[in-house]
Structures are given as C-alpha cells and as structure tokens.
Amino acid sequence: MKTDIQIAQDTKMVNIKKVAALLDIKEDDLEFYGKYKAKLSDELLSSLADKPDGKLVLVTAINPTPAGEGKTTTSIGLGEAMGVLGKKACLALREPSLGPCFGVKGGAAGGGYAQVVPMEDLNLHFTGDIHAITTANNLLSALIDNHIQQGNTLGIDPRQIVWKRCLDMNDRALRNIVVGLGAKTDGMVREDHFVISVASEIMAILCLASDMHDLKERLGRIVVAYNFDGEPVTASDLEATGSLAALLKDAIKPNIIQTLEHTPAIVHGGPFANIAHGCNSVRATKAAMKLADIAITEAGFGADLGAEKFFDIKCQMANLKPDAVVLVATVRALKYNGGVPKAELTAENLDALKKGIVNLEKHIENLQKYKVPVIVTLNSFVTDTEAETNFVKEFCEARGCEFAISEVWEKGGQGGIELANKVLHVLENKKSDFEPLYDMNLSLKDKIKKIATEIYGASDVAYSPAAEKELQRITDMGMGKFPVCMAKTQYSLSDNAKLLGRPEGFTLNVRDVYVSAGAGFVVALTGNIMTMPGLPKVPAANTIDVTDDGVITGLF
Predict the structure, then answer these.
(1) How far, in Å, are 110, 132, 260, 406, 465 from residue 77 at the CA level?
(2) Distance from chain centroid for Cα 353
(3) Is 403 in the active site?
(4) How far apart are CA 73 and CA 221, in angstroms?
C-alpha cells in the first residue's frame, strides 16, 4: 500500500494558473511561488467585494482519538467530489504547523487520495507565512526588552510582561526560560516563555484581519505588558506597528494550491483549535465564498473546540453565516470512546459502539444549538461491518441529521459522491438559521459558563485566584464584551483528556486567563493544556529524510 507522501508524489500536478482559472482568476491576479503555489493579489481580493457569496459548508468532527477521524481528509475529498459532480467548489483550509509534522502527526495535508499538493511544501515551509508570523512576534519581544534596556520610559514592569516569544517547533525546553543573563549590556534578567508560533496572537490577528488597515489596527492593540501602575502597554505604545505590518505584508495574502484532482484550495493561516481559535483566515474563507458556488472549510479538532470557535468567534467577527455543517466520525473512534483498546478496534463490537456513540450524540446536539443543518459522515474503514454502519446511520437519522458514508481516503472524489449529494440536498432544501451560542454582552464568566455547561457538559466552572483577578482586570479595561477562546484538551469534551465518551457533572477548571486585545478575544486556559507542545519519545523527525536528488521521504 502506498503511503500518503508516495500518492502525492506520484500525482501529476497542473500549473497553478490552470487551477486558478477554474475560479475565473486571471494570471495577473496571482503572485507565483513556483509552478504549483501562488498568492492571491490584494487587487483580486478587492475586486471581489461586490460579488455574491456562495454557500459556506463547515467540516468538523468528534473528539480526536488514536483511531483517527480524518476531518481534513474528508474536507478535501468533499471538495474533490463536488468537482466530479461538476460543481464550482473551493476549499478554504489551514496551513500546517511545522512542530507537529516532526512530532506525532507527520503531516497535515489530508490523506490517501484526498490530499492537497504539493504536500511536502505545504507541510514544511510553504510560502513562508508562519515564518513571517514568528519573526514579527519575536521582533516585538526584542523591542520590549530593548525598551527596558534603553531607559524604560513607558515604565514597563518586567514582572508583568505578558508577551511571549514563539517558535514553530515542538520544544518543551523553551516553555519557561530566563533571558538577559550575562553582562549589563545583555539586557535585564527576567523570566520569559515561548509558545508555538501558531498560538501567537499575531497568527490569530492575521487570520481575523480583513485587510492591511485592519491588520495594523489590531497589531497596535496588542497588550504586551503592564506598567508599574498596572496600566496596559501596547505594541502601539512601543511604536512597533509599522515594522510588524511590514513583515506581514505578503503573509496576509491567501495562498492557492490544488487537490490531487485539481480542485482549487485556498490555504491560509493555521491557529491550533486547542490553544487558539482553530480556523483559517477570514480573507481566505471570504475569497472562497466569492470565487466559488460552494466554499468548504474546516475547523480544528473536535466540534467542541474548532466548530464552537468558528461559530462564536470567527462567524461573529466576520459576519459569516454558514449554510451547513459536516460532522465526521469513524466506527473505530466511536468504539474507542466505548472503551475498546486501539489494538482491538477492527473486531465488530456493537456494545462498545452503543456505549461510545454518546460522544457523537453530544456533538450533534451541540451543533444543532447553532441552528445549522447537520450532515454526519462516517469515514469508512474496511474493518467496518454492515451492522455497525447501519447502527450509526439509524442513530443519526433519528436525531434529524442527514447521513453519508465517505470513502475519500481510498477513492478520492468518487468516494465522496454520496456525501457531496447529501450536502447539496441540504443546501437546496434545508434552511440555516445560524445564531451564535452567546450574546457578546454577557460577562466573561457567563460566556465561559455557557460554553462549559452547554457545549462541554460541565456542571460548574472553578477559577484559580489568578484567573479571577485577570478576568476582573480585563473587564475593568473595557474588554469584557470580547468572545472567549477556550484552551482545552482536544481529547475529551471535559478538561481531562482521560474522560472519553460523554462526561457529565464535572467541574471545568480555569487556571489562567489572558486577553488577546488585537485578535479581539479573551483566552481561558483550562486543565493542564500547554501552549508549547513537546516531542514524543520517537518523533516523526526520526524517519523524515531527503534523497540525493531532492525527494523528501517519511513525511507521513
């Protein structure tokens, strides 16, 4: 059996200008990065303003398990299937972070015959967007320390610097560090921290900004520290806005590539959904909606994280109204939620399936709260039995959902025809009355409680003293009407990764809170979630290589 990278490398890509032409994009509107990658020009994006919007379809999933769900694979396969059916469709996806590619994940461009290509480029440096974000983030850190060194006229309290450095790599040793050691000229000694680049507020800003003007305004509002009087110090106070924007001048432009079947894919931005807001850029999504009749996007991890943030943060900020949502599950993952060990998932086990399907049930209930039609798709494995598949189908249809089998990993677009037809049926026959979960005028605590109780299934929320204090400070600064971005484990509906299925009656523990004033949301850290991942005992980096003639191997 071919690996994903072998399938991708065996595919004959077409010049990106031919792919763009499927969306009526002219060659002059592309900024080329070789033959198979390009950025969309600002002139093109501006010209789309008066065009009508196509339909918007979100793809999300149940909580991820070691058994695999295939959300991105399903998104890409659905786009390919729309092409097979002659529909004008466009994908809007996130860029992968380098860190997980060398850690556990090994790649994030889809799988099997539902991939976007060039796969290796996308998983590695791509067009340099994440590098630009990393550089801008760390320039701001350098300006903070330099300002203190050069006299500290803003009165920055070194004990209250909240801006962290970043690196797009899983490096646990950088989570908590000390900077400024050495001579007096080497800066003030202080504690510092690193986050992974995709958790940087600048990533969130890039993904939520509508244009360069909006980007600069958001960058200027970043709270980097507090002064000795407890007042916020911003990037604008440091006169950093212009130089940060200059570094992001090209990164703000969405990228276009293709699927294995040459469906256009706009890939831009890459915040994680467990520690950030988990959606590709607003510019990319809106461009896909203007350029195609059907825009297919995805949000990270399970629906309790990515979909909730897509609806409550991205859609509210960008005035988006999704028309349908596809919820991905697998029989294997549902049995895993029912207590079956990974090594035994291939055997039929209806009892475990009935026990574990409560996870899918909760996600269905959650999505229906947003009043958007739901299509459940079962990502097919050869070990699935007819009895198991029929049980899931009947379960979903009894709850008012359309249901479809997806075989896109094995068959590409042809394997997604059933799903594509169900999506088209919903788009044509079921009305979306989208509304967010909460009103922005609620207090920050009330928003957190609403997410915790209604989406996660918690009975209550507990706050550390530090979180209580920070919530009050953020409210006093006039930012209490911001949406909330929950940082939580992706593996469970709760904040405890070991609680599978549908945990209930638990208390959600918020240990810390901080404001991302430029992005426009408040982040609540729950449980033991980390903003800088670590590598596993045997990282994927150990098996990645490049041949003498430049062919990359081992990348998933």
Answers:
(1) 9, 30, 9, 8, 47
(2) 28
(3) no
(4) 37
pLDDT category, 66, cuts 50, 70, 90? confident
102, 301, 482, 556: the catalytic one is 301
> Is 301 one of the annotated active-site residues of the chain?
yes
- The residue annotated as part of the active site, out of 17, 105, 190, 430, is 105
Mean pLDDT of 22-48: 97
pLDDT of residue 107: 62
Read off the pLDDT band of 377 (50, 70, 90): very high
Give the β-pairing of 232-234 and 223-227: antiparallel
Which pLDDT does position 105 carry in this prediction? 59
Q: For residue 443, what are its two tokens?
A: 């207090």
- CA-to-CA separations, 165 to 146, 154, 160, 216, 246, in angstroms, rounded: 14, 20, 15, 20, 19
Catalytic-labelled residue, pool 409, 482, 506, 521: 409
Match 């900077």 to its residue by tokens.
179
Task: Tell me whether residue 273 is one of the annotated catalytic residues.
Answer: yes
Of 102, 126, 194, 381, catalytic = 381
Mean pLDDT of 492-515: 96
Among 39, 55, 94, 332, which one carries the catalytic annotation? 94
First and final C-alpha spacing in the chain: 13
CA-to-CA separations, 381 to 70, 112, 301, 338, 399, in angstroms, rounded? 11, 12, 20, 18, 24
Whether 94 is a known active-site residue: answer yes
Helices 201-208 and 212-221 pack at an angle, to 10 degrees, of: 150
Q: Show the tokens assigned to 434.
A: 């989208």
Q: Which two tokens stand for residue 132?
A: 């630009």
Average pLDDT over residues 385-398: 97
Is 109 marked active-site? no
Known active-site residue 395: no
Distances (CA, A) of 108 to 16, 23, 72, 230, 353: 20, 24, 8, 42, 28
One of 60, 72, 73, 74 is an active-site residue; which one?
73
Per-residue model confidence (pLDDT) at position 106: 55
